[in-house]
Amino acid sequence: MQEDLFGGDALPTAVPQPSQSKVVAAPRKAASKVKPALEGQKWLEIAQQLPAGLRFGVSTWSYPGWKGLVWEGDYAPSVLSKQGLQAYHQHPLLRTVCIDRTFWRPLTIAQYAAYAAQVDKDFRFVVKCPASITDAQLRSEEGKAREPNPDFLNPQLVVEHFVQPTLMGLDTKLGVLVFQLSPLSWAWLSRPQALLEKLGVMLAAVRQALEGKPEVIVAVEVRDPELLGQPLVDTLKAHGATFCLGLHGKMPPIEDQLPVLRALWPGPLVCRWNLNRVFGAYGYADAQKKHDPFNALLSEDLHTRAVLARTILGITGAGQAAYVTISNDAEGCAPLSIQNLAHALTAKPIK
């Protein structure tokens, strides 16, 4: 039976009650000049048939090419960045979003609160921890490692610069905290026990800071296949965290990552479909060049889509929650990838 739960080859956490903690007063929701796409409403019937615990979303939302899919009309990226979220969250299939910008620089409580004010009470955010904490290297603007990061997996900084601001700004709209470990040097990969011990100390601090917030999922994403194994599973289990299924050119295909989720069962599914494997481990620039303006599926990955759909059905069918966020770099247009997944999950024809 467990084999069937993971897509036949095919995971999540129950959705608890909202928190009663104090939050920073959110700014009043202002009228947005960005209008939601009328075309999006044709997906309402299918959205209502999707599992209640499933949340689809994208990675950032400032793409003019999504005209007719997510918004009605032409808007500059700067306008969409500031006001597009209000239109985005009105699409029936889009019930979450991954805030990727936090990976590059921590946000303030007020910035998180501004995001929360743009969406309704049922919406949830997936938020990435800053690389200043999850990258073992300090890097140049070109991404080249310069020197070891003294703040790598620092438990005090992760609470002060990430967990507390997200909690106070997003409150009940916070769904998942993602800790993406950037590609590690051999100095760390050759000492996995030391690495996982350090990760465990940080996760313990995160869980302590989340006391009374069992609904917030803690997920760890890795970019080194060498870490996929029982020691990682044991560390995540010990601290109430799950494995983020990272679909990326640097990682094995989806079916080779599913054993980690099986070993963590039962637990929540957090999946980030970041980059189509055809572009390789460092192919973001090539993917962007091919897919711009991100309004069509130019690099369809039918295999990944099919396995992911089976995995979602198995996991949500067992009453567990699933967060699945997709980048334009996965197939060319994230909203269309989500529409095709919704179609696969409901077996409803696209008109």
Query: How many strands in all?
Result: 12
Oligomer: single chain
- Rg, Å, rounded: 19 Å
Distance between the termini: 35 Å
Number of helices: 14
How much beta, percentage-wise? 15-25%
Biggest β-sheet strands, sense, barrel: 8 strands, parallel
In N-to-C order, the SSE pattern is: HEHEEHEHEHEEHEHHEHEHEHHEHH
Shape: globular
| Count of the separate structural domains | 1
Average predicted local confidence, pLDDT: 91
Protein name: DUF72 domain-containing protein
InterPro entries: DUF72, UPF0759_sf
Give a structural overview:
This protein has 351 residues and is α/β, with parallel strands linked by helices. Helices cover 38% and strands 16% of the residues. The protein has 14 helices and 12 strands. It has helices spanning 2-5, 44-49, 77-88, 109-116, 131-134, 155-170, 186-189, 192-209, 230-238, 254-264, 284-291, 302-317, 328-331, 334-346, and strands spanning 35-36, 54-58, 71-72, 96-99, 124-128, 137-139, 145-148, 174-181, 217-222, 242-247, 269-273, 322-326. Strands 2-12-11-10-9-8-5-4 form an 8-stranded parallel sheet. α4 runs parallel beside α6 and α6 (155-170) packs parallel to α8 (192-209). It is globular, with a radius of gyration of 19 Å. It comes from Mesopusillimonas faecipullorum. This is DUF72 domain-containing protein. It holds the Pfam family DUF72.
